[in-house]
Amino acid sequence: AQSVSQHNHHVILSEAASLELGCNYSYGGTVNLFWYVQYPGQHLQLLLKYFSGDPLVKGIKGFEAEFIKSKFSFNLRKPSVQWSDTAEYFCAVTKGNTPLVFGKGTRLSVIA
Amino acid sequence: ETGVTQTPRHLVMGMTNKKSLKCEQHLGHNAMYWYKQSAKKPLELMFVYNFKEQTENNSVPSRFSPECPNSSHLFLHLHTLQPEDSALYLCASSSRASGESMTDTQYFGPGTRLTVL
Fold it and tell me: What is the mean pLDDT of the segment spanning A80-106?
């Protein structure tokens, strides 16, 4: 079965530190990639997505992600995190007409 | 506010009870989804409806019974649940049309926190 791996279960960073969350998938061929975020007590919302074109995708709140096809990866980055970035981050992948498959999520805690 | 609402937000039920979860989307979408979010497990897709027709049933036990009377409303009827069914149940919607690839963004509701005693 196709799968999405997020290797970091919980990441703790100080404010202003740089962030990189890993996401790898097992699909071959053309894929569509998403990062969703769930802030404490709030609903899941889209952070950014990649369908085609420039493999460096910019999303909301200063986040970006880079699609590296050869590595089957779509890592999420932010140069300088803030306390308000504390949340759970989910990578998701779909191919063609298949439903979204989510990773287990990475919990980010940003401390002052 | 995402345009997708879910009621109730919290539900506690016994194993012999029958209850229903409700989802409503105000975004004009035609596809709706039920997901189960359990601790330390990936978000699991349960059902997909596209133009009121069920297009995915991800091997969900029959004690979960979905209903989609129109493109704006989605229900999940629950009966004789087990304690391991306790989880956050999320509803989502998207503008996916029949036959198109799933590149469309899904918009999620806040979820119903279900506890089965």
Answer: 91
